[in-house]
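Input for the complex:
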Amino acid sequence: MELVTPSIGLVFWTTLTFVLLIMLLSKFAWKPIVAALNDREKSIEDALNAAEKAKEELSRLNVESDKLIKAARVERDKMLKEAKTLSDSLIHEAKVQAHAEGAKMIAKAHHEINNQKLAALAEVKNQVGALSIQIAEKILRKKFADAKEQEALVTELLKDVKLN
Amino acid sequence: MRFNPLFLKKTIILSSFFAIFSICSPNAKANSEGVDSAKHAAEHTEQVAEGHEDAHGKEGEFNATETIMEHISDSHDWHLWGDKSFGLPVILKTDAGLVHFNSEEFHHDNEGSHVVEANGQRFVRFENKVYYASETANEKGQYLAFVGEHPTNGKPLDFSITKNVASMFLSAILLLLIFTSIASSYKNREGKAPKGFQSLLEPIIVFVRDEIARPNIGHRYVGYMPFLLTIFFFIWINNLIGLVPIFPGGANLTGNIAVTFTLGVISFLVVSFSGNKYYWKHIFAPDVPWWLYPIMLIVEIIGVLSKPFALIVRLFANITAGHIIVLSLISLIFIFKTMAIAPVSIGFVLFMYVLELLVAFLQAFIFTMLTALFIGTAVEEHHHYD
Amino acid sequence: MIGSIAAIGAGLAVIGAGLGIGRIGGSAMEGIARQPEAASKIQTAMIIAAALVEGVALFGVVVALLGTR
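Predicted:
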C-alpha cells in the first residue's frame, strides 16, 4: 500500500524539476541540437543531390565528348580518304599526262625522223640529179662532136637514170 | 515483497507476536497512567526483543523484506555504507509555515522515539514519515499515538529534499550539463560530423525523432520533440542512475510511484491539451445511437484515464521489480548465511543487471513511444466513422 | 494470509500477461519470418501491443500490492 501511494513532496519536486528541465533543455539544448541536425541533414541531402547532378552532368559531358571524338574520327577518316583519293588521282593524272606527253614526243620524233628521212632522200635525189647533170655535162663535153655517139650515150645514161 | 515463503514465515511470526502484544497492551495502557518507570523499562526490553524479532537489531536475524523495502523506498537520509549516511534537508509545510532542518537531527531514528524541535514545533519520524510529535511518549518510547499499526498523529506536508529528490536534482544537473555541452559542440562544429560524446548521443536523439516522434505523431512532430526528448532522457538517465549501486546512484527514483505519477500526469496533460476537436468528439460524442451514450462516455473516459495510469504503473512496476529481484538475489547470501551461495547469487545478479540495463532503455523508450502514440491519436486530423 | 492471496493474484495476472506477450511475440516472429523487410514496423507494433498487455497485468500486480498492507 505504502509502495503505491505517491508522496506529495516527491510529486511537487518532480513536477518542479521536470518542468524546469523541459524549459531549460528546450531552450539551451534541444532547439540548437534539433536545428543543427536538421540543417546538417539538409546540407547532406543537398550535397548528395548536387553530387548526383554533377555525376549526371559528367556523364552527359562524357557522352557528348564521346560523340565529338567519334565525329572527329569520322571527319579525320574522311579527310584522309579524300586526300588519298586526291593524291591517287593526281598521280594518275600525272601518269596519264606523262604518257600522253611521251607518246606525243615519240610521235613528234617519228615525224621528225620521217621528215629528216624525206629531206635526206630529197637531198640525195637533188645531189644525184646534180651529179648526173655534171656527168652529163662531162659526157656532153667529151662526146659532143659525135652526135651519134652523143645520142647513144644520152640514151644509155637515161637508161641508167631510169634504173635508179 | 511479501510473496517469498521465507518472508511470509517471518511475517506470520511477526504478526503472531503483534497479536500477543496487542492482547497485553490494553492492560499495560490501563496501568501506565502515571508512567511507571519500571513498567516503562520492561516495555523497553520488550521493544528490544521485538527489535530482535523484527531484525531491526544489529545481531538480529536478517530480514530480506525489510532490507529490500528500505532500499527501494525513499528516505530522508542518504545511506552510504554500513551505518554511514549523511543528512539531507527536511522541509515541512506546517500549519505555522515552513520549517526546515537537517535530517541528521532525527539521529537515524525511524521509530518515532526521537523528537526534533524546530520553530517551536516538535516532530518525530516513523517509517520514513514525519509526524507532529505527541506531548508524551507512549509505552514504547514513541511520541505517537497508534490505532493498529498506523499512527494517528497529524502529518505536516513533507517537501523534504529526500534521497530521491536529491538524486533527481543530480540527474537534472547531469542532463543539463550533457546536453548543453552537446548543443555547444553542435554550434562549434556546425555542419560537421559529430565527435566524441556528441556521436554517442546523436543516434539516440535521431532515434527519438525518427522512430518515436515522426511515425507516431506525423508532420506535427516538431513541436513535441523537446517534450519527448526530455521525458525520454529523464527516464533513461534516472533508470541508469538507479542501477548504480554506490553513492550517487541507487535511489529508486523511477521506481517510485510519485515520480512516475507526475510523469504520467504531465504526459496526460500534454496529450489532452494537444487534442483536437476530432479527438474530443470521439470521446464525448462518438457516432453511436444516443441511448449508448451513458455507457460509451464511461468507457471512453476510462479509456482516456487508463492510458496514463498504465504508463505510471508500468514504469513504476518494471523498475521496482528490477530492484527487488536484484536485492532478493543478493539477500539469498544473507538468508542462507553462507558464502557458498554467493557465486550463484552474484551470477544471477550480473545477469539481472544486464537485463536491467536493457529494461532501463526499453522502459524509457516505451514511455516515450506510448506518449507519442497518444499525442498522435490526439492530433490526428481525419477520423472516419463509417 | 492476505499477503499470500495477493501473491496468488499477482501470479495469475502474470500467467495471463505471459500468455498474451508470448502470443504477441510468436506472431511477430512469424510475421517477420514471412516479411523480413517489414521487421522494424512489426517490432514497433509488437512492443506497443506487449506494453498494453503488460499494462493490464501490472494493474493486477498493483491490486495485489495494495492488498499486502
